[in-house]
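This section describes the prediction task in plain terms. A model, or a person checking by hand, is given the sequence of a single protein chain and must write out its three-dimensional structure as a string of tokens. No templates, partner chains or ligands are provided. The sample shown here is typical of the held-out split.
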Amino acid sequence: MVFLYFIYEWLIFMPLFILTTIITATIVMLGCRFGNPDFWGYYPGVIWGRIVVALALCPCKVEGKENLDPKQSYVFVANHQGAADIPLLFGYLGQPFRWMLRKGIMKIPFMGKACDKSGQIWVDESGAKGIIHTVRQALSTLKNGKSVIIFPEGTRSKNGHLNRFKKGAFSIAAMLKLPVVPVTLEGPYKVLRKGSIQLHPTRMKVTIHKPIPAVTKEEGNEAGVERLLHESQRVIAESLGEPIQK
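The expected answer:
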């Protein structure tokens, strides 16, 4: 069975994945140039995400969409299990958003250019000025009524378990007094582990938790950031059945 899937991966999945990605990226670039970037920067990605998940032979279940208000901007924070997180969230989150992405993705043919043209937010870790520029981009995006999704662990998990969260996402939410929505991803780590090129068909699940209320003036930003961070980490850890890191 493993051998058959290996053959399927390299003879069917990979060619179709590359073709679908090139077509989607081209549509996004042309759409953003001549049309509405908000539409073209998101909806083609939804179709792409669902196609990729289907091609990988990974059934997907989504819970908690009823927790979201389509008219509300959110800071989504999700655990980062692997490369499969990207098509999974694109295809099944069900709420328009912008990504906060590492600049290394810009080097990927077609995909990097499409992300740039569609207004995704690049994380610049070159120094203090780069970080300030990243935060300003995120604040500008959210002020315009959009949502953003961030992986607060900062990188993919090496073992599938939840890593300690960083403050960046929650500081942005505190600055703009926006609610934070924890999102638990289950399964992507098994689909494609970090450093591996072998896919494994696995059932995946997206759980959209209830929004955590925004920081209030009375609470203050510093205390609010700590509350948002610890509550988000607690919710996702409990959903995964893991101990809460302190």
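For orientation: The mean pLDDT is 90.
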